[in-house]
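Recall the central idea of this unit: under ordinary conditions, the amino acid sequence of a chain determines the structure it adopts. In this exercise we apply that idea directly, starting from the sequence alone.
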Amino acid sequence: MLSLGVSERAENLPTVTQVQKFMTKNKLHSKMFTQVEVFGVLIVAVLQILINLDGSLGCLPYMPRETWDAKPPKSVEKFSGLIPFVIIHHSYEPGACLTGADCRNAMLSMQKFHQQDRGWNDIGYTFAIGGDGRIYEGRGFNVIGAHAPRYNDKSVGICMIGDWRYELPSDDMITAAQTLIEYGVRNNIIASNYTLIGHRQVRPTECPGDRLFQEIQSWPHYSPMLDVVDPNSIKTSD
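Accordingly, the structure predicted from this sequence is:
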């Protein structure tokens, strides 16, 4: 699970029961406290429980599938091991979304197109980044994607929602994407020596758009590698 800021995940705040269990475990129930001391103990308990639940206290504005009403995947195929590639995309269509409601609709639109029109198991991307600065869960880490044939079982596919041929995504979007990658490395999901590329480097396409492609060349771990083949020669199961 990605670690989220409290403002983004009020539903996951510790319950009274969890706080009581923490206090009992640490033998805090046998003493009398002033109101100030009790407040201090509760703060410590909350922080400890959040650490136990998530493994870190990073603040990622993360939107799991249920928050955008994702349809169930037709099937889920996973791959194991550290992920060696991060591939950056743009959606082109739908265009940029600026609000939570618009980004939710963009996610639903992409999932519908991929599942119904393309016949894929699910939305093709691992994650998507909205113009609201939030990270939207697609298939999720270590699930085989449908965004870059020959790399779907060894990459994280991050889609920057919008058309980025002539303009750059917002600073918030870029920060969210980079923070997501850093999270993956820090939590031993993405390999520390990962390779970052644009979609056009493994498939004949203008994705992720000229302006965004120019931008990612300045990101950590970018590689100018080129491995483009005729897409009609690629056998895909998704």
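The first helix runs from residue 16 to 25.
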